[in-house]
């Protein structure tokens, strides 16, 4: 029997919708892409409408609607947290009540108002936060059976779960509960180092290789106790999140030599060393958890999800430990992916749909190209309406050669092609591309195109079949979720003395470290995306054209947005972003637009203040 | 408290928290019982907890739905009674009434706090 399931995540961060039909993922998208509000936590009405359109569905035809967590258990945690903290938790209680009791428990009403129907069953189903993460990790993976590890800040109570997936069944056997959380530990350091919680974790990870882990022992001695099986417990005397609106408290600040770094201020050696230290702790715990899971389950493969699973440096380290034969990480591992997990649970557990495995052995995530696409005719209508000059090149090979030529000449290219990605990484559908061989490209793209911190590295896209020529990587990394070393033979010597003394990051950043310097991080690592023709033939074709032209099978791939802006979704978003930056070329499907040919751009908003810095 | 909160009024919430919930929880605190540990335990060999529901059954997905205040009260009462917290179960009616009232006044916010991992 056919079955269609809609999954939703909302009212936390990164709301999203996902549609699964007969066990196959049809569509998934995050609300922020449509609303243009980064990490938008509101009800995902636009994403939901998109999913229904993609499935040609009327809401009344839905067989199940599944929300990604259990608001009653969340309320249970909120109340107990505030009671335990006592009167000092009043402010938190006041806010949490409004959010959970005033909104989240009534999600059924929001769904009915948005859809006009609760589907065939006239009801909403609810999963649990980590169960949804687990489902999003296991069901789309290429494995028949796999150990499951989910790690994030907090769901209802759970912060860590361990289990086993086999065909359609999921079993979660061991958990760690709030307030003991690896995600919250990492977020506390994110906040303390002056980055935004729940988005700046990625920056902290990028900063870590610039530092030395000289606070590692302090963290282990005072903040977290880790048992040999990887289970852990925090010392809450050092954290603020139980009864204040801040992650850390005075005891934490005393431990690390003073108050938190102010956002946007100079990054000192302290922040660099703190980043290195907490990253080392995180990696150690993840590896211990994986070893324990292997002993418990005996499964050959591991799947992961939850916000901590986006820590691709830890993932790379875990992979190189060789504990499991296979590793698959859900690319939408944050809360947005909960919508997908909820839909998959509805399909496989509630409606008994068989699990679909890809006959070609690849995963069921479809490259994570699960968002909206725009037909060439729509693009042309947009360009004609606004009289933007463009060149249409319908012949794919000719077009890709032209784009590859531009990249090889040092041009920065906004690339918009096919269905938008689901998850926080751009994977060649909504990407900004550049030449990885160009030593000035990292600095140029950070400061003049992305308007973001100069220390942040860029990721390489590489032809899957040639990844081993550039990186020490013996497995595919299609979702940019594994960090791997650049091959020894490609590395260049650096001025180690200057590096050791440097207080200013820029001294370190501007040293070329390999023959693909723009994507080689300070520790010779790279956050690799391997591009396989089965996932994205168009993007693979572009890489191949670049390789044929230059002999290099690697290009820079960074998300198509500026700092603080959600990744572009529509041709309008892409054109706007293109004009606001110093990109040279915009590719909108089969149309090419050169910056110098465009008419003066009448911007309707002060975009540098419109997007809150992330 | 932000000006927005002041506008929305926190009287009923304040009343519930300080006059109903905290006093009802006093006995637990006096006994030194905690809902969760705040510190590491050097004597423990592992911090893992067994998960209550190891496997997922279809009926679990149906359980939390609350179409109205009455259903919410019943679900909360049932949950806290099953957990062995009769003092909390007695608050279920108050909580449900608060939830119904808040549903009339609250609107989902656009912002995610930059300072704290949003926990609710």
Describe this structure in words.
- Chain A has 614 residues and is an alpha/beta fold.
- Chain A has three domains: 4-68 and 70-126 and 335-364, 2-Layer Sandwich (Nucleotidyltransferase, domain 5); 182-326, Nucleotidyltransferase, domain 5 (2-Layer Sandwich), CATH 3.30.420.40; 376-610, Carbamoyltransferase, C-terminal domain (DHBP synthase), CATH 3.90.870.20.
- Chain A has 22 helices and 21 strands.
- In chain A, the strands form four sheets. In chain A, strands 13-21-20-14-15-19-16-18-17 form a nine-stranded mixed beta sheet, with helices on both faces. A five-stranded mixed beta sheet of chain A has the order 3-2-1-4-5. A five-stranded mixed beta sheet of chain A has the order 8-7-6-11-12, with helices on both faces.
- In chain A, a hairpin with a 6-residue loop joins strand 6 (145-151) and strand 7 (158-166).
- In chain A, helix 6 crosses helix 13, helix 7 (182-192) runs antiparallel to helix 11 and helix 15 (396-408) crosses helix 20 (537-550).
- The longest helix of chain A has 29 residues, at 269-297.
- The radius of gyration of chain A is 23 Å and the shape is globular.
- Mean pLDDT of chain B is 88; it is low at 1-7.
- The relative contact order of chain B is 0.11.
- Chain B is built from seven helices and one strand; from the N terminus they run αααβαααα.
- Chain B has a domain at 3-35 and 56-105.
- With 120 residues, chain B is mostly helical.
- At the A-B interface, helix 3, helix 4, strand 5, strand 7 and strand 8 of A face helix 2, strand 1, helix 4, helix 5 and helix 7 of B.
- Strand 8 (169-177) of chain A pairs antiparallel with strand 1 (49-50) of chain B.
């Amino acid at each position: 029997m056919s079955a269609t399931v809609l999954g939703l995540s909302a009212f936390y961060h990164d709301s999203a919708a996902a549609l699964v039909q007969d066990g196959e993922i049809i569509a998934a998208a995050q609300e922020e892409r449509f609303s243009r509000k980064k990490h938008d936590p509101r009800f995902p009405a636009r994403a939901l409408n998109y999913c229904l359109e993609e499935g040609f569905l009327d809401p009344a035809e839905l067989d199940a609607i599944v929300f990604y967590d259990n608001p009653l258990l969340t309320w249970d945690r909120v109340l107990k947290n505030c009671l335990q903290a006592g009167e000092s938790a009043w402010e938190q209680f006041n806010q949490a009540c409004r959010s959970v009791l005033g909104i989240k428990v009534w999600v059924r009403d929001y769904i009915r108002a948005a859809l006009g129907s609760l589907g065939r069953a006239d009801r909403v189903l609810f999963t649990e936060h980590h169960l949804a993460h687990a489902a999003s990790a296991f069901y789309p993976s290429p494995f028949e059976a796999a150990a499951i590890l989910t790690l994030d800040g907090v769901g209802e109570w759970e912060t860590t779960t361990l289990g086993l997936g086999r065909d359609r069944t999921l079993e979660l056997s061991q958990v760690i509960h709030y307030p003991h959380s690896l995600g919250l530990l990492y977020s506390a350091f994110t906040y303390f180092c002056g980055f935004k919680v729940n988005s700046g974790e990625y920056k902290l990870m990028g900063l870590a290789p610039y530092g030395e882990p000289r606070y590692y022992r302090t963290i282990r001695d005072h903040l977290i106790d880790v048992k040999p099986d990887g289970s852990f417990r925090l010392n809450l005397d050092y954290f603020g999140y139980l009864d204040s609106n801040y992650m850390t408290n005075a005891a934490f600040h005393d431990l690390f030599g003073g108050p938190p770094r102010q956002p946007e201020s100079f990054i000192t050696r302290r922040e660099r060393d703190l980043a290195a230290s907490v990253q080392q702790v995180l990696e150690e715990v993840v590896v211990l958890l994986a070893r324990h899971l292997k002993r418990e389950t005996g499964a050959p493969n591991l799947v992961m999800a939850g916000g901590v699973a986006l820590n691709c440096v830890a993932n790379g380290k875990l992979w190189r430990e060789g504990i499991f034969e296979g590793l698959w990480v859900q690319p939408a591992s944050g809360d947005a992916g909960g919508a997908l997990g909820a839909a998959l649970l509805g399909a496989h557990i509630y409606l008994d749909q068989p699990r679909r495995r890809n006959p070609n052995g690849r995963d069921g995530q479809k490259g994570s190209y699960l968002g909206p696409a725009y037909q060439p005719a729509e693009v042309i209508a947009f360009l004609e309406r606004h009289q933007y000059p463009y060149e249409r090149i319908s012949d794919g090979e000719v077009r890709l050669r032209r784009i590859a030529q531009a990249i090889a000449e040092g041009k920065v290219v906004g690339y918009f092609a096919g269905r938008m990605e689901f998850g926080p990484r751009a994977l060649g559908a909504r990407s900004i591309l550049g030449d990885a061989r160009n030593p000035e490209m990292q600095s140029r793209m950070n400061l003049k195109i992305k308007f973001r911190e100069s220390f942040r590295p860029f990721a390489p896209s590489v032809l899957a079949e040639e990844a081993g020529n550039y990186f020490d990587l013996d497995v595919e990394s299609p979702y940019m979720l594994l960090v791997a070393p650049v091959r020894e033979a490609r590395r260049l010597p650096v001025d180690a003395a200057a590096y050791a003394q440097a207080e200013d990051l820029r001294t370190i950043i501007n040293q070329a470290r390999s023959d693909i310097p723009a994507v080689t991080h300070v520790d010779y690592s790279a956050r690799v995306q391997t591009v396989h023709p089965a996932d994205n033939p168009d993007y693979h074709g572009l890489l191949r054209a670049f390789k044929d032209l230059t002999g290099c099978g690697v290009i820079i791939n960074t998300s198509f947005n500026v700092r603080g802006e959600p990744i572009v979704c529509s041709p309008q978003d892409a054109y706007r972003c293109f004009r606001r930056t110093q990109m040279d070329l915009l590719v909108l499907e089969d149309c090419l637009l050169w910056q110098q040919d465009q008419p003066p751009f009448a911007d309707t908003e002060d975009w540098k203040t419109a997007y809150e810095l992330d | 408290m932000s000006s927005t909160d002041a506008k929305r009024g926190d009287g009923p919430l304040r009343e519930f928290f300080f006059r109903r919930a905290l006093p009802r929880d006093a006995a637990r605190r006096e006994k030194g019982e905690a809902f969760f540990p705040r510190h590491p335990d050097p004597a423990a060999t592992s911090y893992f907890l067994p998960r209550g529901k190891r496997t997922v059954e279809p009926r679990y997905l149906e359980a939390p739905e609350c179409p109205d205040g009455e259903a919410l009260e019943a679900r909360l009462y049932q949950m806290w009674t099953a957990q062995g917290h009769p003092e909390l179960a007695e608050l279920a009616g108050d909580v449900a009434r608060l939830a119904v009232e808040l549903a009339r006044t609250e609107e989902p916010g656009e912002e995610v706090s930059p300072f704290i991992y949003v926990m609710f």
